[in-house]
Amino acid sequence: MSHGNDPRVHRDPSQRMPEGWQSPSVGTIENFRRSQRLGEVATHHPVLRQRAREIPRDVIQSGVMRALEYKLQSTAERELEAGRRLVGLAAPQIGEGVRAFIAQFTTDPTTSKDSELTLMINPEIEPWEDDTRLGSEGCFSCGPLAGIVERPSQVRATWFDLGGKRHEEAVSDFRAVILGHENDHLDGILFPDHVISQGREIAWVNAEEALAYGQSIRSGEPWQPTCPVDQWEAMNRPDDAEGPIFRLEAFSVINQD
Q1: Catalytic residue (one of 182, 209, 233, 242)
Q2: From 3.90.45.10, 3.10.129.10, 3.40.50.1100, 3.40.50.300, which CATH number describes the 20-254 domain?
């Protein structure tokens, strides 16, 4: 779906943003470092749009990888402590362009509770059945955006742990969605890309609206406000004169010399 050159479309994305949102000027990508929130990189940071590098076998068991795991886990813990649900986090989301992520995808057989977030190094996630499922997704890197994405409901995952051991596991349902979402980050894909390519609308959903949004989706009722395609595209352009879009209190951009 494209607006093309339709003169009826306002090209300034801030004209359709919900109240309380702004489009600050952050200059070029050289001036942008990190947002203030938990080491997060914003949607326009190039590391989120590049294919992450595979980690050499002789590096997997190194202190570098242990440091990366600590950085991922500590960032995830701060999110959870702040009351935000987080079931996965990829290295590019904290500025590290390598093929690794942590994900919650197994269940403790003694308690039936979700496991801790597992570090997966050089993962390969492949569908192993034709079944798909529709579900609402959000993302640590996309702020309060949500949308419906169709993904394989059963995948086969292979990865290495910090000890260099190779694992293989069949994963289904929501856990398959988690792995698919996190693996996308390693290929420079964000979930709104799927929402758009699958012909659906991206929604602005604040944390306090999550329950209402889920109820709206289940009932088939439309949700407002939505994030138009050109607004999403503006969020991904670091050098756009209108500036990337952030919620200022959550994504205040700072320069770090």
Answers
A1: 182
A2: 3.90.45.10
